[in-house]
Every structure is written in C-alpha cells, then in structure tokens.
Write a structure and sequence with these properties.
It is built from nine helices and 15 strands. 27% of the residues lie in helices and 27% in strands. Helix 4 links the parallel strand 9 and strand 10. With 324 residues, it is an alpha/beta fold.
C-alpha cells in the first residue's frame, strides 16, 4: 500500500510517500480503507522529534492518527456487519496517513448518512477536545471568555461553543483574515496578538476587569500574556503549544491568585473519567453546535506541504489529507 513515511526526525522534507506493508486486523480490530485523515499541530512536533515523553515513536514511521474511511475487513472476533460501514476513528499506534489502517472496533464511530465524511473527520479530534474543555470549564453563560489561537481548527469550535453558551467572547488570532474568520464564528471582540501589548486590548474589552475563563491554545509567551488577563479566582486552560511550548505561567502565582489551571495532562483521555464519546461529537455537529472550518484538503503526496502550512500558521481552520 502507499503510505506517507517520516524517514527521520527533522523538517517537513523528511516525509516521503513509499510502499509500506499493509497492516492486519487482530482481535478486537478492523482494517479500514482510509479516505481522509486529520492533521493537527502536534504531529509536526512529533515529526521533529519533540514530545518524546508523550509519544513513543521512532523513524521510520507512518504518521497520523484520526481517519475517516470504510471498514474492509474485521478481526477474528469482530462482527462481520462492520464490513462496508463508513466510520471515523483512530489508528492503533499512528499509521493513519496510509491507504489502510488498523483500529480498535470499540473506538469506531459510524458516520450518519446525512453527514459528509469531510465534516466528520474535521470535527472528530478537535471536537472531542472541545467537548472535554466544555466539561472541565465553569458554566460559560454570561462570562468573559478569552480564546487564543481562535482561528485554528479547535479555536473556531471553542468560539462557536462559547458564543452559543451565552458568553462574551474575545477571540485572539494573528492577522486580518484570521480575525475576520473568528468574528464570523461568533466572537464579540477580536484582538490581533501580533500587536505588542495585545493583552491590554483584552482587558479593555472586559471593562478592565479581566476574563473569567481563558481557553489558551497558542502557548509560549502568548500564553503567558493570556494568563495575565484572567481574574483572580477564575479559570485557565493551557492546552496549546504551537508557539514552542505550553503557556509560560508561574504555578506559584496561579496558586496565590486562586486561578484554576488545566494543562495538557488534564485533557489526556487515559487520565479522565469522561462520558464523552465520538458519537457525542457527531451529534453536536449534526445539531449545529460544532461546525468545523476546512481551509484546504491536501493529497497524500502533499503531506509535507500540509505540515509546512500548519507550522507557518497559513491556514484558516483545518487541514485534511485525502488518501484516495
């Protein structure tokens, strides 16, 4: 089968499309004919050899995790009725950017007939994390809510969710095109965080009182600036790291000011007791609560180009990869 392969840790040019052994479904698994895959920023960091503490992977490997496609074969103990179903899911140990992938049948979600596969794939990963954040955060109705990286795949979903919950939403992104997109998703105020001292604009948008909730998806110094806008006793999520690491805040200051901080460990599914499922995400999509924005769909041969587009912040919303 054809697969995109990370040949060594490094830049986007280390990705090559090669012939790769077709996987075999084992017990409790299915073999999926993959049509579309998701692409998120953390995959670019893994490709560079970062986040080794979270992801145990060594080149050569086939990257990618979230997919949409059709079940082709089932493992020895799986109901044959799965064959032919259109599904979304996650591959076992990466491997999604390939013509075929293996997934646990227990984690598959059948895509409703009235939902396009593109929409389902675009919403699945970011939508799941968005609903986890909704579950973890305080009630948003009537609150001042800051969302950074608001023009990214998950950022636009968070803006939509906070707007529908009745929050006063301040969306922060970089550049006019992204700010226009964020505004269109329901943000009441948009702020360009490429401007020095942008956090002062956030404070002005909240009558200089600060925000009650911050969904921080940018990381680094941008995250530190976002943290400074949170009121004492309120809530801050440091879940994004595209600026070279998670938000640089002082835990001692957070404790002194009584700010509840949720980090990436709080969003790891293996650390959570959550009732949220992939089916819940697709239901919220069908209800119109989550509407993913797809900027561009790349071919498998363009995966390196897609990585570069994410790293250079040139996308508005999501990037998908079409495998076939």
């Amino acid at each position: 089968m054809r697969a995109a392969v990370v040949t060594e840790f490094g830049g986007a040019d280390v990705i090559e499309v090669r012939d790769w052994p077709e996987p075999v479904a084992g017990a409790g698994q299915v073999l999926v004919e993959i049509e579309l895959t998701d692409l998120i920023f953390v995959e670019t960091a893994i490709r560079k050899g970062e986040h080794g503490g979270f992801f145990d992977v060594k080149p050569p490997y086939v990257p990618g995790n979230s997919f949409g496609g059709t079940v082709r074969e089932v493992g020895p103990d799986v109901d044959e009725q799965w064959v032919g179903r259109r599904v979304i899911g996650r591959t076992v140990d990466f491997g999604a950017h390939a013509e075929f992938g293996v997934a646990a049948v227990a984690e598959l979600v059948e895509v409703p007939a009235d939902l396009s596969l593109e929409t389902a794939v675009a919403a699945a990963g970011d939508g799941f994390t968005t609903l986890l954040l909704e579950q973890l955060s305080p009630d948003l109705q009537g609150k001042e809510v800051l969302i950074t990286a608001a023009a990214g795949g998950m950022g636009v979903l968070l803006v939509q969710l906070a707007h529908k919950a009745g929050a006063h939403v301040v969306g922060a992104a970089r550049g006019r095109a992204k700010l226009d997109l964020v505004k269109a998703q329901g943000a009441d105020v948009v702020v360009d965080y490429s401007v020095d001292g942008w956090q002062k604009l956030v404070l002005e948008a909240t009558n200089n009182e600060g925000v009650d909730v911050a969904f921080e998806g940018a990381g680094g110094e941008l995250g530190a600036a976002a943290f400074s806008t949170v009121k004492d006793g309120d809530w801050f999520s440091a879940h994004g790291a595209p600026s070279g690491g998670f938000a640089r805040y002082d835990p001692a200051e957070a404790e002194r000011r009584g700010i509840t901080v949720k980090g990436i460990q709080d969003l790891r599914i293996d650390n959570l007791e959550t009732t949220i499922t992939g089916a819940d995400v697709l239901h919220r999509v069908s209800q119109g609560d989550l509407i993913p924005v797809i900027d561009r769909t790349f071919a498998l041969d363009q995966l390196g180009e897609a990585h570069t587009a994410i790293e250079t912040r040139s996308l508005l919303g999501k990037a998908l990869i079409r495998i076939r």
